[in-house]
Amino acid sequence: MSPPQRQQEAYLKLAKPQQKNDPLHRSKILLLGTRRSGKSSILQVLFKNLPSKQTFYLEPTMRVTKHPYDTLIPLEIWDCPGNITVDTLGAPLSEFASIVFVIDIRDLYQQPVVKLVEFIVAACQVNPNINLEVFVHKAEKLQEDDKIENFRQIHERVMDRLVDESPEYEQVPLNFHLTSVYDYTLQEAFSRVIHKLIDSLPYLENLLNVFCSNTSSPKAFLFDTTSKLYVATDASPVDQATHNLCCDYLQMLNSFGPLYKSNAPPQADTPDSAKPSTKAPFYPSASTSLSPSQPVTLTYHLVTPHLALVASLPTPVFEMRRGLVEWNVVWFREGVREIWEVEKERSEGELV
């Protein structure tokens, strides 16, 4: 096996979500769509680190597959075959917190729209609070004008079909997202899906607001390091260019991260070494400055084993006040870890 292959294998083992036997209360996400719409590609790119160019070779999903994933909260994503129906799903829709329906932007629309409306109507009858998301996917296949027009048509046909079912469905909170596995629109859209499942989101956002205020940071994200989903951000609008830069930076760190480890000295081979270790945990951090024409510095600080703070800072501010930034990171980390512990205890405490 070549060194690059060994590196990739080591990274995949490191990044693979933990699938322990101890059950947790997981927020369930139902991933639906017609055959070849791109459901499995979305799942594999986000949570299994599959390179986007390799999604072409994925086999169609033949049966319902459950994928557990642990981030700030435990998730369980159900990847369903294209011919699944409400009756053949094998579980009541009341069990799911969100439904994500994927439509190929180049599709003829009739079949996926009928299936989507079928699930929306059934879900609303048993769970009026369910989150409903539509990913208009494979957006990279069309030119910008055609992309916008097809997106508009899909939105219009879905809403018309819902109104035909009943006028009351006109008010269903249905969210549409334009996505592709070849850029970070997919991460942006799925991040918004996750936000609705995190009860502690307002507290995380407040911590990020305080961090940005104290450090003069125009934008900060709390990222899940493996999937590159941001579980929270500050109150300022998400600028696509800044989000893309942060994701690129995180991707670069993920590529090289497995090559490094803490250089803390090993414990001595003595009877005392059997005692629990008291050495301080290791929190990697990094920073990079962009080109002189764009005097911005991106900073990375690991907060929990799977969450990291990624922030943009004016380079002069970062260079002059680096100690202040690090001090605020310490307090931010403490706040996030407290919330993370509460979420963990709640997931374990909600076992049936």
UniProtKB/TrEMBL annotation:
It comes from Boletus reticuloceps. Belongs to the GTR/RAG GTP-binding protein family. GTPase involved in activation of the TORC1 signaling pathway, which promotes growth and represses autophagy in nutrient-rich conditions. Keywords: GTP-binding, Hydrolase, Membrane, Nucleotide-binding. CDD domains: RagC_like. One of its GO terms (biological process) is positive regulation of TORC1 signaling. One of its GO terms (cellular component) is fungal-type vacuole membrane. This is GTP-binding protein. Pfam families: Gtr1_RagA. Component of the GSE complex. Its main location: membrane. It catalyses: GTP + H2O = GDP + phosphate + H(+). It is found in: Endomembrane system. InterPro entries: Gtr1_RagA, P-loop_NTPase, RagC/D. Residues 264-292 are annotated as: Disordered. The keyword Hydrolase applies. GO terms for molecular function: GTP binding; GTPase activity.
